[in-house]
Design goal:
Strand order of the largest sheet: 1-2-3-4
Order of helices and strands: EEHEHE
Mean pLDDT: 83
Shape: globular
Low-confidence stretches: 85-106
Structural class: alpha/beta
Radius of gyration: 13 Å
Number of helices: 2
Distance between the termini: 27 Å
Helix content: 25-40%
Largest sheet: 4 strands, mixed
């Protein structure tokens, strides 16, 4: 699945809309957008994950990296998700099916 990214400013906060799957193949595009936004002086970010159907560890790493970047400027990175975000493709025994919260981003 493809990844669609968009962003807009609202009340001094840059909102990033993400749609699709964030995995090892698509995460670099999100990383690049986060780096560009921070380098342009945007330190208050919200990542809207409502339309993300899958997020793997690479995607989590990108979000944590974004958080570190904005925190270096006393900023913040928050996220929004409707609760249907799937973390693992393999939903067999022992695997969590939903991401309850992103550690360090809550």
């Amino acid at each position: 699945m493809d990844l669609k990214l968009g962003h807009y400013a609202r009340d001094g906060i840059e909102v990033i809309d993400v749609q699709g799957e964030i995995d090892i193949y698509t995460a670099p595009r999100l990383r690049e957008l986060l780096i560009n936004l921070v380098s342009e002086g945007n330190y208050q970010l919200v990542v809207n994950l409502d339309k993300v159907g899958f997020l793997d560890s690479t995607g989590l790493g990108v979000l944590v990296g974004g958080l570190r970047r904005v925190r270096a400027h006393d900023g913040s990175l928050d996220h929004r998700a409707d609760g249907s975000l799937r973390h693992l493709r393999d939903r067999g025994p022992g695997h969590r099916g939903r991401v309850k919260g992103l550690h360090g981003l809550d």
